[in-house]
């Protein structure tokens, strides 16, 4: 075959193809002898049905609390079905171990809840989640709408791997009826740790537990309340071995060991039964995250007050989940749309505010604040919580560390401290610094390993 013949054949084929396409286009656009009307492309063709799976480690009824927001999303997107499944760590496991097994199982995962005590960097380094920056840019998400302290949530290595989601605060709830009955002054925004100690003593005198077993949650803030800091400026190391932190832990130890504000030897010696519960009316106070839904259902007449004012600067303490896009999702665009609806769109946020599972995340969004106030319907409770939101934003405490290894190192330290601080002969000023040093060394190794993983 000559070169000319080789050139002619493709040309002929191309021409025939073009004519076929043109003929097809003409015939498809006409109807009958008079030429008919041009047909229009189907613009409202139904989308193929898909299922999106959210995996979380929150609590057993989280799917029920999230249901109204999910329902609203599915009404707007009828082709999408959303499943919310809990990942339950086995005995002795942590969240990282449980999620490692989850990804190894090959189960469908489209969206992950990043818990407050695990850094976004942990998920990113393990390849579980993908950066969201391009999705954010493409869909016009404005991160500056969030409280400033929330804006850094989910950022690691200069990229965003999680959106701020489920904004909460650790507060002290107190039983108003009980305080009135025993002549205990109701706590105010400016109350101190001495005020809290006196209130607890009075409750115990009347054979009522001061706090339920949730009191160790206060370990996250008490060090800072005496002038210590939780992390160094870049968040890579704990600084809970400072003198301020040690003084706070020492006060806290005395508060439990000597005065019995948490269930233990002191309360047992005074004849108080074990297992106190704020919801059941067997403790006068509870230091916990926002459990107003449970307390309302229990019919409690409760008040809320921020953590007490200590000698140092910290009073607020916040908890904040993240929501991330799984690297294994086969429907990433659709999954991002759901993430955006839950964590950013006002419509989705309002549904979650009404369920009392999140605080307004946008300080300038009037509709969010009004929905919150209407939902709570208690001015003193609303005022106290919004006050602490502002305090936490100003102080930047408790809003989760983004570094890899947080679950193993920082949370490991807090767990160790809660288990040992109240033991006989525990010495805060020697044992805490030694343990901080040990966990920081472990944390440093974990961060180096994560950096290696990110470069692969």
TrEMBL record:
<keyword id="KW-0732">Signal</keyword>
<dbReference type="Pfam" id="PF01547">
    <property type="entry name" value="SBP_bac_1"/>
</dbReference>
<dbReference type="InterPro" id="IPR050490">
    <property type="entry name" value="Bact_solute-bd_prot1"/>
</dbReference>
<feature type="signal peptide">
    <location>
        <begin position="1"/>
        <end position="33"/>
    </location>
</feature>
<dbReference type="InterPro" id="IPR006059">
    <property type="entry name" value="SBP"/>
</dbReference>
<protein>
    <submittedName>
        <fullName>ABC transporter substrate-binding protein</fullName>
    </submittedName>
</protein>
<feature type="region of interest" description="Disordered">
    <location>
        <begin position="27"/>
        <end position="49"/>
    </location>
</feature>
<feature type="compositionally biased region" description="Basic and acidic residues">
    <location>
        <begin position="35"/>
        <end position="48"/>
    </location>
</feature>
């Amino acid at each position: 075959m000559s070169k000319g013949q080789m050139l002619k054949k493709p040309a002929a084929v191309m021409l025939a193809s073009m004519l076929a396409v043109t003929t097809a286009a003409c015939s498809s656009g006409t109807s009958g002898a008079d030429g008919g009307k041009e047909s229009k492309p189907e613009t409202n063709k139904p989308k193929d049905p898909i299922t999106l799976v959210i995996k979380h480690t929150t609590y057993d009824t989280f799917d029920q609390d999230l249901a109204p927001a999910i329902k609203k999303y599915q009404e707007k997107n009828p082709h999408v079905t959303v499943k919310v499944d809990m990942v339950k760590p086995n005995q002795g496991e942590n969240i990282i171990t449980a999620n490692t097994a989850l990804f190894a199982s090959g189960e469908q995962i489209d969206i992950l809840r990043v818990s407050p005590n695990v850094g976004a960097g942990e998920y990113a380094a393990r390849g579980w989640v993908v950066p969201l920056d391009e999705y954010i840019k493409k869909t016009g998400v404005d991160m500056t709408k969030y409280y400033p302290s929330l804006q850094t949530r989910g950022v690691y290595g200069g990229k965003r791997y999680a959106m701020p989601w489920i904004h909460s605060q650790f507060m002290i709830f107190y039983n108003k009826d009980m305080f009135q009955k025993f002549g205990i002054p109701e706590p105010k925004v400016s109350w101190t740790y001495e005020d809290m100690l006196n209130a607890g003593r009075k409750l115990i005198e009347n054979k009522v537990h001061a706090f339920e077993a949730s009191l160790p949650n206060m370990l996250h803030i008490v060090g800072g309340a005496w002038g210590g800091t939780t992390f160094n400026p870049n968040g890579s190391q704990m600084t809970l071995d400072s003198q301020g932190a040690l003084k706070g832990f020492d006060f806290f130890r005395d508060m439990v060991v000597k005065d019995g504000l948490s269930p233990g030897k002191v309360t047992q010696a005074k004849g108080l039964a074990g297992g106190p519960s704020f919801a059941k009316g067997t403790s006068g106070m509870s230091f916990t995250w926002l459990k107003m839904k449970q307390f309302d259902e229990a019919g409690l007449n409760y008040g809320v007050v921020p953590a007490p004012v200590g000698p140092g600067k910290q009073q607020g303490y916040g908890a904040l989940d993240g929501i991330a896009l799984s690297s294994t999702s086969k429907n990433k665009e659709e999954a991002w749309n759901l993430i955006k609806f839950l964590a950013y769109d006002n419509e989705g946020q309002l549904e979650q505010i009404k369920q009392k599972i999140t605080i307004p995340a946008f300080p300038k969004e009037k509709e969010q604040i009004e929905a919150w106030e209407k939902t709570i319907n208690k001015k003193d409770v609303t005022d106290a919580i919004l006050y602490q939101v502002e305090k936490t934003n100003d102080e930047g405490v408790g809003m989760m560390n983004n570094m890899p290894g947080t679950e193993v190192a920082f949370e490991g330290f807090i767990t160790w401290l809660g288990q040992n601080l109240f033991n006989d002969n525990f010495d805060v000023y020697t044992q805490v610094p030694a343990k901080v040093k040990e966990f920081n060394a472990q944390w440093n190794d974990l961060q180096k390993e994560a950096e290696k993983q990110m470069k692969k």
